[in-house]
From TrEMBL:
It comes from the Bacteria. The lineage of its organism: Bacteria, Bacillati, Actinomycetota, Actinomycetes, Streptosporangiales. InterPro entries: DGQHR-contain_dom, DNA_S_mod_DndB. Signal peptide: none annotated. CDD domains: dndB. This is DNA sulfur modification protein DndB. It holds the Pfam family DndB.
Amino acid sequence: MGTQGATSPAGEATTAGFEYIFPAIRGIQAGREYYVSMCPLRLIPKIFLFDEDELAPEVRAQRVLNKGRIPALTRYILDNPDDYAFSALTASVDGVMRFEGVSQQGPGMRVGQLHIPMASRFLINDGQHRRAAIEAALRENQALGDETIAVVFFYDAGLERSQQLFADLNRHAVRPARSIGVLYDHRDELSQLTKLLALKCPVFRNHVEMEASTLSARSRKLCTLSALYTAMTSLLQGLELNADQAQRIAWEFWEAIDELIPEWAEVRNRKLSAAEVRKQYLHTHGIALHALGRLGNTLLHQSLDPEVWKPQLAPLRQIDWSRTSSAWEGRAVIGGRVSKNHQNVVLTVNYLSQHLGLDLSPEEQHAEDAYQRGER
């Protein structure tokens, strides 16, 4: 990108006759021209604006910036300078854009330079959080400024068109299933460990749904990868372990649980179907796996020695995991349906902890007291 002249803080008057020049490709959508360019990261915070937070929603062209998202996006860039990836920003330009192709005919008509007056206003329609993260990352690592990001430029046809553009860009955006997010994450060590257990551990091998985060009624899988990941997160939280230790302990823990839940082995031995087990029992549902992980975490914080924590799990053999058991109503089951919100996870952990003779934490005791009073 080049410039003719220079900008001044004095205002738009001083930028008259000056322009940005972007290398660009010209395209057509819905009968309108648009342009795609590569912009240096250091330029992004300087020229691309987003609406002020205090504007009412009906006069904004985008949602309010969620500042809570920025630190994670910023760390993503800074922690992965060799392999981060950001999709294109989309911006509307309220100035007169002029495109000069490298030739007047043939393919060269679509490749050239895009001239935009410096007095123009650039409004981001999609990517304001990426823009804010780039700005924050540049403050810590200025060397990133020479890297580039794709930007799609549209003509600004007014507020209504900008609002419609934002709605259209996000109308069909669908977040990928959480399971496939875990499956494809090669950076997160816990994701790697969860995948290893799902693929190699005899307890789970061939019985974990690796892509979808929900199971159909006829699925031959016992649980989803995302449910196992949540359970693993709870199991290992706060434990100072290296990768080998984490793998060994997780493997041993789930094998110990497997010995106490005979239905899991019956599915592997084809005496029961996975669909039957999920329908009749609670122990393969996400809330139960999560609760078992939290229970294990409590024991592991007391001792990492399996000779200590394994015997403490023995009372789980006496648990009635049937979904129809009255013990689960109001804890893990509400009106016959499994509920997995935070309060229900806590109440499920409480039930298991009480069977193991473990003390409840203040949060768990508070939830238990409310449950006993009928405040569900």
